[in-house]
Amino acid sequence: MTDDQPSRPAHVPLAGVIGMPIAHSRSPRLHGHWLRRYGIAGHYIPMPVMPEHLAEVLRALPRLGFVGINVTIPHKEAVLTLADAVTDRAALIGAANTLIFRPDGKIHADNTDGYGFIANLRQNAPDWQPDAGPAAVIGAGGAARAVVASLLDSGVRELRITNRTRIRSEQIKAEFGARLVVYDWAQAGNMLEGAATVVNATSLGMEGKQPLRVPLDALSPDALVTDLVYTPLMTPFLLDAQARGCRVVDGLGMLLHQAAPGFERWFGRRPEVDEETRRIVLE
Ligand code: NAP
What we know:
Layout: E1 14-19, H1 27-37, E2 43-48, H2 54-63, E3 66-71, H3 78-82, E4 85-86, H4 88-93, E5 98-101, E6 107-110, H5 113-124, E7 135-138, H6 142-154, E8 159-162, H7 166-176, E9 180-183, H8 188-191, E10 197-200, E11 224-227, H9 236-243, E12 247-249, H10 252-267, H11 275-282
Helix pairs in contact: 1-10, 5-6, 5-10
The chain binds NADP nicotinamide-adenine-dinucleotide phosphate (NAP).
NADP nicotinamide-adenine-dinucleotide phosphate (NAP) is lined by residues 113, 116, 139-144, 163-165, 168, 201-204, 206, 228-230, 251, 254-255, 258.
Enzyme class: oxidoreductase
InterPro entries: Aminoacid_DH-like_N_sf, NAD(P)-bd_dom_sf, SDH_C, Shikimate_DH, Shikimate_DH-bd_N, Shikimate_DH_fam, Shikm_DH/Glu-tRNA_Rdtase
Subunit structure: Homodimer.
């Protein structure tokens, strides 16, 4: 090892989450719970980081004993340019949420949001079939890109997408290909006709924000409807879909499942996502 490679002190491994703001993050509670549950000596720390300090912080953390971190707004895109290795899925999505600091000092960037999205559906709607019919994704931000990638990977044959700013959904179609069909925001209700899987990937419906207002007349009661927003757990959109007889899956499970691969890489144990995990994170 040369002098400019970070040393890996043989002490308690550290992980954490960087973002700005970060106080609202539930990740420290989640990882802290898993560390206690599995009796692992480690710590998970929330760290407010300004964009102008990002590169410096990423250089410093491995030297302080960090084995990796989660990354949230506003750093998810910028970390890709600072990482030494980027997984194909993070590159395709254009953002990373999980960094691994390797013993050789290299930073490895991954995106586990899509994995978390699918794992949540598989756990809470075990008979969900990705190829049962078209999927409809509302929103075209960073989280929507992860959802689109994971739905296509799972075997969805037609993926409809709409976004207030249409150019962003067209950009996603240009990158993700022929299975995508772009709908105008004003036509979002029509997009639901015949859809087997419907996803709100906008931030609408979050506490303090307006609800997502998409006419649900065309929504089939056979559709599975899910929302990435998890504060509140049951968003107005999910409540409306449930009232129409649809199965609904809230967004908390995605948050829990996307965290599991990072925890495993950093602390050496695959954590279980179960009712107790949900309860602790909600407390
Ligand atoms: P983002 O990149 O900022 O995208 C925000 C999306 O919401 C865009 O599609 C945006 O449309 C839309 N939007 C915002 N305000 C709107 C309004 N007034 N009317 C219509 N559309 C509006 O955010 P993101 O990272 O994709 O996150 C989206 C949501 O998913 C957030 O609530 C986030 O907390 C949640 N999320 C949850 C998980 C989980 O684990 N459950 C993981 C990641 C994200 P425009 O393009 O037109 O602005």
